[in-house]
Amino acid sequence: MSLDRIAGVMQKEMREYRRNRFVITTMAVMPLIFLVVPLLTLFKIPDSATESQIKAAVGVMSLLLLIVPIVIPPVIAAYSVVGERVQGTLEPVLTTPVRRDELLLGKAVAAFVPSVGIAYAIYIVVALSIRIGAAHAVSAVVWHPPQVLAQILFTPLLASWSIWVGIGISARASDVRVAQQLATLAGLPLLAVTALVSFQLVKTSVPLAVGLALTLLVVDVVAWRVVSRMFDRERLITGAAAEPSRS
Amino acid sequence: MARPWFRRRRVGLGWRPVSPQGWAVTAVALAAGIAALTLLHSPARVPVAIAIVAVYAIVALATGGANADAEEPEDGDARRHEPDPPLPEQPPAPPRRVSPTGGPILVVDGLTKRFGERTAVDDVSFSVAAGEVFGFLGPNGAGKTTTVRMLGTLVAPSSGSAVVAGVPLDEKRGVELRQRIAVMPENPGLYLRLTVAENLEYFARLYGVEARADRIRRALDAVNLGARANDPCGSLSKGLRQRVGLARALLSDPAILFLDEPTSGLDPVATREVHELIDGLRSRGVTVFLTTHRLEEAERLCDRVAILNTSLRTIGRPDELRDRLFAKALQVRTGAPLAEPERVFADLAGVDGWSADGAGRYELAVSDARLAAPAVARALVAAGADILSLTEERHSLEDVYLELIDDDVEAAR
After folding, report:
1. Helix (H) or strand (E) holding A15
2. Which of B175, B181, B188, B176 is nearest to B247 (CA)?
3. How much is the mean pLDDT over chain B?
4. Which residues does chain A have within 8 Å of residue B64's beta carbon, measured at their own beta carbons?
5. C-alpha torsion sign, points B56, A113, A26, B8
6. How far apart are CA B109 and CA A247, in angstroms?
7. Nearest to B108, CA basis, from B152, B154, B171
8. Interface test with B, best of A15, A45, A91 (most B CBs within 10 A)
9. Could you tell me what percentage of chain B is helix, strand and coil, using 3-state DSSP and rounding each to the nearest 5?
10. Rounded to the nearest 5 degrees, what angle is found at the Cα of B188, between the Cα atoms of B182 and B194?
11. What is the pLDDT of residue B83?
12. Across the interface, do B70 and A32 touch by the CB < 8 Å criterion?
């Protein structure tokens, strides 16, 4: 694999995002929603609140913050292949020596960097604001080490999953709208798992967080390989799947 | 007129924001909804979770697909109406090579492609010499683009083989093969939000080109677009986009350049510019594989042509094909009908037969027009005829093409 080609794909994708007002707007507006709500909620909790009330509120915050890496990446990842196909740029790219692994990895990294960057930025803002302005009891729960570790570990891993699902759907879809909606909805199962952890229906601990993270890491790597195999040049160009050559 | 904040979806249900104000209203409404739900401090956690998931789904559905309307950059329609920069002075094209000197750089043997029950390309074999400009002609749907896609490893052949720039056509050697060729599809497929230079830089990296900046500058100079390097491709006319596509194809210094209908949809001026560029490539010794259904283009540019209509109908130099299909003839017009045409045309060197084609009009079948014409002129003068014209009947490549394709149409009836 050529790192320069992967970097080239990534740079091109990010240039396109920067000049796409829809992507910029989505990346700017959606995180704001997920920033404002948890802050409003947690700032209103008094020191006298019960532990269960605090944990419930922190659970909602945690869930909202983990929605960011699930929601944002599909918006761009699902566009990445079918969008190029629709605007006619895919065929010239596929006539170059770029391998499908390189192309897909470049596109995935380009979606990963801004998504995870934004998710981490929001988490840092929320966590610091709570440390400074919220009740001490709330701050203690938010800064509980397993909670912090889960947030740090799960954010990139959830984003990776969303990205590979988005690219996989994009490689199979023939319409941008359908690809984006399916890819976003495909994140819902992850949301369920995240909700269990966030609401502490599954008791969080460092070993559990690390274990889940490792599982997600394996799933992400498998997803990359599966999506690479799904990337069929012939089907993408002609709409018909390649048949085995008889020559 | 004020821009609307929301617009009804062309596909799907509901309205979608189309302005910053629209997006702001949507965001505030969503945030207010979520905030209201979470601030309720409901003891039951399930409704809160359901509400958040519902909001999440609404956001997903509201935002999904908006990119489909954002493919063209805003200035895409506001293309500059300034005249396109002229092409650089090309060195005079060398005389048309009757037989390019290089060995075969492309050998195709029995290439066939089937899509289900339909055969797109059937048992096609030919070879192209290095440095040749090879025309691949055929009507729409003849299999020209499919052949190019097979040779570019985009589409796998159903059977047959090929060696492209020294590399066997095989999926396992696809990267190596694609490194040696360049393909310009009918639609140049440029990233309209990126500048001309950024488009070329991207492809230079995909090809692993070294000294990229210098190579990009030279490619742009070759198509006289150096001054437009920093313009977004969305602001260029169709002709200029085609030039960018050509510059992109030249970046990697390919052994074979496949041009798929490069003048399709271009106006006559832009078409002439592309022709001049291809002439320039010829003078540099680049092997060009040109697919087209424009016969005058093939006749003007190509050393040899192949005519395809699913299967290969014929192949050769344009003049060879004419000779192969049509008998040579001289057309004679005289001021008055000849009194004894049999006596005038009989036994003339190079004349195989004659027929009258109206009053004072005669068509002479000849084996060699250059040998027969002076003899015919002398005989007419000796017979006291007033010669109005004596011309060789010229058949165009179009005549050849129509003769072959009409046969197929007849056979299909």
Report:
1. helix A3-18
2. B188
3. 79
4. 177, 180-181, 184
5. negative
6. 11
7. B152
8. A91
9. 40, 25, 35
10. 105
11. 58
12. no
A87: Cβ contacts below 8 Å, ≥ 6 apart: B71, B189, B192
Residue B287 or B65, more confident: B287
**B contact residues 174-233, partner A, Cβ 8 Å cutoff:** 175-176, 178-179, 181-185, 187-194, 198, 201-203, 205-208
Beta strand pairing call for B351-356 and B133-137: unpaired
The answer to whether the Cβ–Cβ distance between B49 and A11 falls below 8 Å is no
Whether residue B222 contacts residue B281, with contact meaning beta carbons closer than 8 Å, is answered with no
Q: Are strands B256-260 and B181-184 parallel, antiparallel or unpaired?
A: parallel
Please state whether the predicted TM-score (pTM) of the whole model is above 0.80. Answer: no
At residue B392, what are phi and psi to the nearest 5 degrees?
Answer: -85, 135
Gap between the Cα atoms of A109 and A156, Å rounded: 11
State the burial class of residue A144 (Cβ atoms within 10 Å of its Cβ: 0-12, 13-18, 19+). Answer: middle
The CA-CA-CA angle for residues B300, B126, B207, to 5°, reads: 80
Residue in B with minimal Cα distance to A68: B56
ipTM: 0.85
Quick one: which of B290, B308, B276 has its CA closest to B184? B290
pLDDT in tens, B107-133: 999 999 998 889 999 999 999 999 899
* Tokens 């790192």, residue located: A3
pLDDT tens by residue, A127-154 = 888 888 788 888 888 888 877 888 888 8
Among A112, A105, A92, smallest CA distance to A17 is for A112
A87: which chain B residues are within 8 Å (Cβ-Cβ)?
71, 189, 192
Q: Is A19 on the interface with B (CB under 8 A)?
A: yes
